[in-house]
Write a structure and sequence with these properties.
3-stranded antiparallel beta sheet; mainly alpha; two-stranded antiparallel ribbon; single chain; about 210 residues; 9 helices; about 50% helix
């Protein structure tokens, strides 16, 4: 018997997930704004030559408006992988002109972007389930993960703040950055070494 067909995920949904993972950023207490900026993108906001994405609007409940803060309007750097994903999506979508929504909804004949909750339910959550992720996932999950990974990979708080476009570094550290277990262990080891020096490591080796 032929093996059952694997579930397919549209390239658009994959691209949305890539953008979210890549560093979508907004005010920490407003989850609607992050997904609003994501689905509020138009093709003329994407600058392939400068490798950056300009944030000039937010779409919440299909109503278009400006980003909430000045920090939210800073351009987002675009990696080569993200640029490639967007370029491929632009070739596939029926709405690829400069003024079109990047994630235009065919159901709305391209006049409106997709509903974020619909994409999350139909594509992101099933993909997470197939990957064995049991925890609750929302659009804001991507932001918290990015902030944590930025800091744990060695990025300075200032760099993480600017990439996340937070108004204050306290927001970046206090709300998003959850120290990873390995980081905690390394920090503890360094603290012990300050007091006991090499003798502490020698004692640990003898245990």
């Amino acid at each position: 018997m032929p093996s059952p067909a694997k579930p397919r995920t549209s390239h658009g949904a994959t691209c949305i997930t890539s953008i979210s993972t890549a560093s979508w950023t907004v005010h920490p207490t407003d989850a609607d704004t992050s997904r609003g900026e994501l689905f509020g993108l138009k093709w003329d906001d994407v600058d392939f030559e400068r490798a950056e994405i300009r944030i000039v609007r937010s779409v919440v409940d299909q109503v278009e408006g400006p980003p909430k803060t000045l920090a939210s309007r800073r351009p987002v750097p675009m990696s080569s992988e993200l640029a490639s994903a967007l370029a491929n999506w632009r070739k596939q979508t029926s709405y690829s002109k400069q003024g079109d929504w990047v994630f235009a909804s065919p159901q709305a004949l391209g006049q409106k972007p997709y509903w974020p909750d619909a994409v999350l339910k139909r594509h992101v959550l099933p993909a997470a389930k197939r990957a064995g992720i049991a925890k609750h996932i929302g659009w804001h999950t991507f932001r918290r993960t990015v902030a944590t990974l930025l800091l744990s990979s060695g990025a300075s708080v200032k760099t993480a703040q600017e990439l996340m476009r937070h108004a204050s570094p306290d927001v970046t550290v206090g709300i998003y950055a959850k120290a990873l277990t390995a980081d905690k262990r390394e920090a503890q080891d360094k603290l012990v070494a300050l007091f006991l020096g090499d003798s502490a490591r020698g004692a640990e080796a003898r245990i």
